[in-house]
Task: structure prediction
Amino acid sequence: MAHEQAADRYLKALEATLAPDMVRGVYVVGSAALGSWRAGRSDLDVLVVLDRPMSVSDSAMIGEMHAVLEATRADGPHSDAHYVTPDLLGARSEVKVPFAVDGVFKPEGHVTDPVLWAVLAKHGITLHGPSASELRVAPDPAWLREWNHGNLESYWRGQVGYRPHFAKQDPDATVDPYLLAWEATGPGRLHATIATGEVISKEASADYTAKLFPKYADLCAKAKAYRLGDESVTCTTTEVLRVIDLVEAVCNSAKELP
Result:
């Protein structure tokens, strides 16, 4: 399923769920907005701007909508979304907003981050309402750098802790190549944003990381091929240990950046 089809499916479901005057805008963000949508690999990421906060009944209806979308998606993507009010657009706020991840609606919400606003501001695809560029949600560059530094240290450096586990495994044992693709492209995206201010795709991250650390170029090439849909890509425990080394190297390098 192409992302345009997935977005149209989501929009029709939303229009059938909430009153028309409650929805101010609907925008595609994530991989589709960055030009790296991959059928069978990517989720549909959407930002919805609501005229007012959801009521209990609104929340229940949106939860049911996501449940139906998930149950009927077949080989289509998960429909993931953030639901915000206009006052929170682009805001550095601790307010938790309702969201859906892996197609599951979570009304308790979570805090939005500057990467979401950066993608929306520069790459957002407008499905309904004012154009994404009119929203003026570009985050403060210092906040964007700060958040990416923090995420590298709080999440990605933690991946290094898995080294002892894999070190005990058979070096030639087969591991899901998704792990290789995730680890080889994730931290490099954050490094690139800190260094350049731009948010890049996972595929672009593979190229960026390979240039930054040529000794791991083979792993980055495998990760990119997997992201592009190459079903022949394989991964071994030895490669997982190397990609953990790469994650640590990216985190260490980023610490030297302002």
The mean pLDDT is 97. The chain has ten helices and six strands. The chain has two domains: 3-138, 142-255. Residues 177-196 form the longest helix (20 residues).
